[in-house]
Amino acid sequence: MRVLFVTHRFPGAAFRGDQVRARAQIRELSQRHNITLLTFQRLPETHQALAAMRDLGVEVIMVPRDRLAMLLRAAWAMFSGRAIQLALFDAPALREQFAATLCALPRFDLVHLQLIRLERLIEEAHSVPVVLDLVDALSVNMSSRAESARWPVPRLYCEEGRRLARHEELAVKRVAGSVISANTDAIALGSPDRLVVAPNGVDLDEFSEGPDAAVREHLIFHGNWAYGPNQSGLRWLLRTVMPRVWQTRPDVRLRLAGANPERIRSLLGDARIDLLGQVPSPAAALQRAAVSVAPVHAGSGQSLKILEAMACGTPVVTTRRAATAIAGDGTCPCLAADDPDTFAEAILRLLDDVPDRRRLAAASRGFVESTFSWAHSNAVLESVWNQAASAMRK
Known about the structure:
alpha/beta; Rossmann fold; 2 domains; seven-stranded parallel β-sheet; six-stranded parallel β-sheet; 13 strands; 46% helix; 14% strand; globular
């Protein structure tokens, strides 16, 4: 099958969930399908992610961003009633390149669009079937951020969430097939018939089990620090949870790893916090930690940082919201808490009880191996691709 795979960011160019997901999809499915990548981000010709994509035999077409034009479209959207997230990426240059690429011979059998941000391209695909990977419900993501934001931002988030929900509902009806990472997000969108859950995955070779849980000592919070829910989660952790932990275990260190560390530098003031920044190997950082904390109270979809920590055999303490997105039936082998006291108690329990830490570490790795491989996720997506293409041929 010849597939035009369209993203709003270059897959694998950074440790963002949607980019990791797209890279994993292309890396495997390009072995069985002829994939052309069209992306709304230009990388230098020497960039490692670009070289890796071409090594897969994928043709790459990059459309540069005009950031001033993006900001002007976003400003106009605030007054026109359109969702800002859609306006930002509704670039004439991208639409023109998309149309020109579709006209090239031989014809494409399928268009894969990643994220609702690119929904304008659905109408530009004409007779070529479209599969939409929502990844998560962006409407839910925006609405949830209103809960922890300061006035007047909550009102803007709520309005953006309302506008996006309308577009998500219509988009799923208009495309030949669609997928999403978490069942909780599918339910939030009304569980439409053509929306299939293709869960996130983990590279099980890269994120392998670390040393015995008994010899690990510190905590780690790993994530992209440009992501709002990670920032608000860190504030909550530092202000309400860590003082309780340090009251009992003053020796415990908290390590913060991930891209864009400058976004959180102003939050740090305790000598027991190590700001690692973007580490060369997230797996290595996770493998050395006794406990991975993910105090995320907002957002949507399945948290890759939780799945990756579990794959490394690192026990996780997170929120009920995040745990339910991974396994709505309560089978996620992590400790989930929403209030500071219970969250701190869960951390201290794992730090103090080595046998329990070992048990949860083993259960975490086994859980990810059985349910969250990229091979499983990509098999679901490929099935949706095949059904969409077959329906068009009939």
